[in-house]
Specification:
Distance between the termini: 23 Å
Strand content: 35-45%
Largest sheet: 6 strands, antiparallel
Number of strands: 30
Shape: globular
CATH superfamily of one domain: Prolyl oligopeptidase, N-terminal domain
Helix content: under 10%
């Protein structure tokens, strides 16, 4: 059931692209507001939280956002551009009269793993025969070319931070200069499963191999991995390592319910987490909002969010937590809540907290009318971006932005 709903939501964005493809990528001519600079040299943390599967990569420049959309099994991956000034979404192809259906001809049809920019060009990793490679293209979707080899194909998404690409190959984490040679990559962590496999490498998700969520903040690389404990249970565990040569060390693991109480997926992983300020901030759906100091291990509750919503989904920025008071989908056969699924349903209010736990705003979404389900995508200090689906019909799905200061909602693209 969940997979069908997810595929329906994602297919809607394909319909959006066909309508938008006649528009030129970029801003309208004429005077535009002054936009703040964006540091494209560092890992863009707030853009790496979407767990719905519909956006496998997001990166930001001064003028707009680049999105890599996974349209679901049997459909197509596509690159899109969201202009900040016009709030218009366009297919990132750059070829006039392209129908965006032929992957050999269309620059936008890319099955990318991660997305980043150095400010001048767009980069992404792509798995294929013989391994995973990094490609780049101009910001208008033209001039695609291969940049570097990342070795054996791997499920884990690479990241870019301070001129280096951090990636996983065969269960091992490596770092190499953007555009550099694979033989110069330095090993950071892990056991080489490629060397043990009789065929060498793998191309799909392998539950027997460790899989990492890579993260970077300042002078440290972080990676989250699910670790089997001595008692046989599993917990998401966070490690850190200096960007320069240094030893990785364990700095945090999913807390026990004796510390933080029970929540929706008690014991294995938290619902949403964010590393900043030498701390990990985490939200527990069915629980509350917490912070753990990564140097001392001290864990403190920042806000009793369960008093506002028993469940909920969330995304972070460097200054705030945006929490939607939605709930897990109900099983259509017995009515029980399907906890742990990526899509939630319902909800009519976004709660905005600062990172000290102070409730700043309660912003209503009721102006959107009846909404069946939401997917929170990302937020910054000023705006929350999300997908809203008003019914089972994917034509009623809308990409929206919410101004966190005024509560104004803008439908970036409505494909009714």
């Amino acid at each position: 059931m969940t997979k069908k709903l997810l595929a329906a939501l994602l297919a809607a964005l394909m319909a959006l692209s066909l309508a938008a493809c006649e528009e030129e990528v970029g801003r309208d001519d004429g005077e535009t507001p002054l936009l703040e600079d964006v540091d494209t040299s560092v890992f863009q943390k707030n853009l790496h939280q979407s767990g719905t599967g519909d956006l496998d990569g997001i990166c930001e420049t001064k003028e707009g956002f680049y999105l890599n959309c996974d349209l679901g099994p049997g459909l197509k991956f596509r690159l899109y551009y969201l202009d900040k000034t016009t709030q218009r979404v366009t297919v990132l192809c750059g070829k006039p009269d392209c129908g965006h259906t032929d992957p050999d001809a269309c620059n936008a049809l890319v099955d990318a793993m991660g997305l980043w920019t150095d400010g001048a060009r767009l980069f992404y990793a792509k798995a294929g025969t013989g391994g995973k490679r990094v490609y780049s293209e101009a910001l208008n979707g033209t001039e695609r070319r291969e940049v570097m080899d990342l070795g054996a194909a791997a499920y884990d998404r690479p990241i870019y931070h301070r001129g280096e690409v951090y990636f996983v190959s065969g269960g091992v984490i490596y770092a190499v200069e953007l555009g550099g040679d694979l033989k110069d990559a330095r090993r950071i962590w892990g056991r080489d499963y490629n060397a043990e496999a009789p065929t060498g490498g793998y191309g799909a998700y392998d539950p027997a191999m460790p899989h990492y969520t890579l993260w970077a903040d300042g002078d440290l690389l972080y990676f989250m991995v699910n670790v089997t404990q001595e008692d046989g249970t599993q917990k998401d565990t966070l490690f850190s390592c200096p960007l320069e040569v240094g030893e990785a060390k364990k700095v945090w693991e999913t807390p026990d319910k004796e510390t933080v109480g029970e929540w929706e997926t008690t014991g294995v992983s938290v619902s949403q987490w964010y590393v900043a300020n030498e701390s990990i901030y985490f939200y527990l759906s069915g629980g509350d909002f917490w912070r753990s100091d990564l140097s001392t291990g001290e864990t403190v509750k920042l806000a009793d969010t369960s008093e506002k919503t028993l469940y909920g989904s969330a995304v972070f920025s460097d200054s705030c937590l945006c929490l939607l008071n939605d709930r897990p989908m109900a099983n259509p056969f017995d009515g029980t809540l399907m906890v742990g699924v990526p899509l939630h349903e319902g909800g009519d209010t976004v709660l905005v907290y600062d990172l000290e736990g102070t409730l700043l705003k309660e912003l209503s979404l009721e102006s959107l009318g009846p909404v069946n389900g939401f997917s929170l995508l990302w937020c910054d200090d000023e705006t929350l971006y999300f997908n809203a689906n008003a019914g089972r019909d994917p034509s009623t799905s809308t990409l929206c932005s919410l101004d966190l200061a005024t509560g104004e909602i803008q439908q970036i693209y409505n494909w009714q």
